[in-house]
Every structure is written in C-alpha cells, then in structure tokens.
Amino acid sequence: MTNMENSKFILEAFKEKLTGGDDWDLWVSVLNLVVDEFLERYDREAKNRHWVFLAGSCSHWVRPNQSRWTAAGGFAWPEGYKNSLPELDWSVMFAYRNQCWTLVKKLPGKNHVVFRVAVPARTARHKQAAVHTKWSTTQNPILYGFRNLEGNWKCVAASDERTQGGILEMTHP
Q1: Residue 9 pLDDT
Q2: 134 falls within a domain
Q3: 71 lies in a domain?
Q4: Which of 3, 5, 77, 144 has the most neighbouring CB atoms within 10 Å?
Q5: CA atoms within 13 A of residue 96's CA, in its CB half-sphere
Q6: Is there a domain that residue 169 lies in?
Q7: How many CA within 13 A on the CB side of residue 5?
Q8: What integer pLDDT is reported at residue 2 of this predicted model?
Q9: Mean pLDDT (10-residue bins), the chain, 173 residues
Q10: Number of H helices, E strands in the chain
C-alpha cells in the first residue's frame, strides 16, 4: 500500500465512528499529525516489537473549564479520570508492520509499543481542541493544541516543543 492509500485507509476507519458533533476536518488534521509522529518514531527505533496506534474520542475530561494549558494562548487541560489518561468513548486500533497498517480488535502479541491518542468529542462547536497523546514506553504525555483559523485546523502548540523544536507544518494536504 502506498502512503496515500495508508492515509485513506486510516481516515475511513475513523470517519465511520464520528457523529454530527465531531468536526471531520479537525480529525483529518489530528490524524495526519499523529500518524506522522508515529511513523517517525517507528523509523528511529528497533522494529522487533509490535507497534500499535490507538486513537479515539473522549467526552469526559477532568475539570475542562478550570484547568488550563497556557501554550499558544491557552487550551482546556486534556486530562482524564483514569490515572490521568482520558477515557475513550470509542477507539480504533491499528497494528503497523512492514510499512502496512492492519485494523485490529486487540493488542497483538506481548512485546508491543502503543501510541494512544485522545481527541475531544463535540468539536464541531469549538474553535480549539487540545489532543492528549501518550506512548506506552514513556511516563509523560505529549499534548497538541489545535485552532480553527479561518476554517482550517492548524496545530499551534505541542507540549514537547522545548525538546523537539517547534511545530512543523503537516506533510499531508
């Protein structure tokens, strides 16, 4: 499968799950960014593990109106109730091996690396969204701040900018 076919395959799996309250354009922007991050890390690290991409929607954040992430003008802090992980209302999971994505229902094998992504629900009525991501191999989550600027969703902040540099323009249209 080519990268474009891979991208379409992933996007279609998520499109089926979204409701009228979810902004499809935000999901496209988020998925393009986090899939790129996943693939970059996969290319850098050993491949003798099962690599899993798990993403879904979260409608229950801890105190979303009282806690703030102040980057790029501020966002509601994307933290969940279960050990600070946002609880996903629904999710889609893919295994990645030999440059091919496979839709899976459960974790494959034992030795796996999971990249978990939580996107806020009901985004069609908002102009900003904070996305919570976490690698199973690290303690700290990485947060991404998206804003709807003139009808286009852009990633304007990342919590790891100090160590990884500024937000790059997404490589996908």
Answers
A1: 84
A2: yes
A3: yes
A4: 144
A5: 22
A6: no
A7: 6
A8: 37
A9: 59 91 94 93 85 92 63 67 80 90 87 93 86 91 90 88 51 38
A10: 3, 9
The number of folded domains in the chain is 1
pLDDT at 172: 39
At 131 the pLDDT is 92
For residue 151, the 8-state DSSP code is T
| Residue 63 lies inside a defined structural domain of this protein | yes
DSSP characters over 74-140:
-EE----SBTTBPPPSEEEEEEEETTEEEEESS--SSSEEEEEEEEES-GGG-SEEEEEEEETT-SS
**Helix, strand, coil content of the chain in percent (nearest 5):** 25, 35, 40
Q: What angle do CA 68, 32, 173 make, to 5 degrees?
A: 115
The predicted model scores a pTM of 0.83
> What pLDDT sits at residue 67?
66
Distance, CA of 173 to CA of 170 (rounded, Å): 8
Containing structural domain, residue 58: 3-163
- Classify residue 89 by burial, with Cβ atoms within 10 Å: 0-12, 13-18, 19+: middle
- Tokens 């050990």 correspond to 83
CA distance 77 to 141: 12
Contact 67, 61 (CB under 8 A): no
* CB 101 within 8 Å of CB 68: no
